[in-house]
Specification:
single chain; about 200 residues; 10 helices; HTH_TetR; HTH-type_TetR-like_transc_reg
């Protein structure tokens, strides 16, 4: 029994920290405003607890992002169409990008914070490499489409957190307008005729 209590406490503290960080990143004016001290205070734990559990602020942000993204990741890896692995690539690529765009619209400040953690380049971040590999693999299956590696980079550029924040936050472009514009661009890249082919 004495061995299990620390584990239970650690799990409870971790959940409290992630919940507090989630709230703070959702409500903040800028992700840079959210500090480890703020998160510790909101979670009711000491700063040392945060550093022991997550290493540093970047580790905490990555853990929170991964937790928030888990439903999307599960749908992509195991789910049905239009996100799942059995979806034809012409339908899956727009669906993947729309899902990622919606996630970033819903988690703008957290996504900004995560993309800012790429030390030398955001393109070297683990989350970016995962999405790029997924898109590249799908694009390689589309007849007539060349240079799937660069195309995957170009498509991911349209859902970068800083662009999403610029459009949704600074310019106040409505969510559905952003989705429609993104779908139109993706359809053009894939050789389609318009956003009607993209997920809704």
């Amino acid at each position: 029994m004495t061995e299990r209590r620390p584990r239970k406490d650690a799990a409870r503290n971790r959940a409290a920290v992630l919940a507090a960080a989630d709230t703070l990143f959702t409500e903040c004016e800028s992700p840079e405003d959210v500090t480890m001290a703020d998160i510790a205070t909101a979670a009711g734990v000491g700063k040392g607890t945060l550093f022991r559990a997550f290493g540093d602020r970047t580790g905490l942000i990555r853990a929170l992002y991964s937790t928030r993204l888990e439903p999307v990741r599960t749908a992509v890896e195991e789910g049905p169409e239009p996100l799942g692995p059995d979806t034809p690539p012409l339908q899956r690529v727009p669906a993947l990008l729309d899902a990622l765009l919606c996630f970033k619209l819903d988690n703008r400040h957290l996504a900004l914070a995560l993309e800012a953690t790429g030390s030398d380049s955001p393109y070297q971040a683990e989350h970016y490499e995962r999405w790029h590999s997924l898109l590249r693999s799908a694009l390689e299956q589309i007849p007539g489409l060349t240079n799937s590696d660069f195309t995957a980079h170009a498509l991911l550029a349209t859902v970068r957190a800083d662009l999403v924040e610029h459009l949704a936050g600074r310019k106040s472009v409505p969510r559905e307008d952003i989705r429609k514009q993104s779908a139109t661009f993706v359809a053009e890249v894939l050789g389609g005729t318009g956003p009607d082919e993209a997920p809704r």
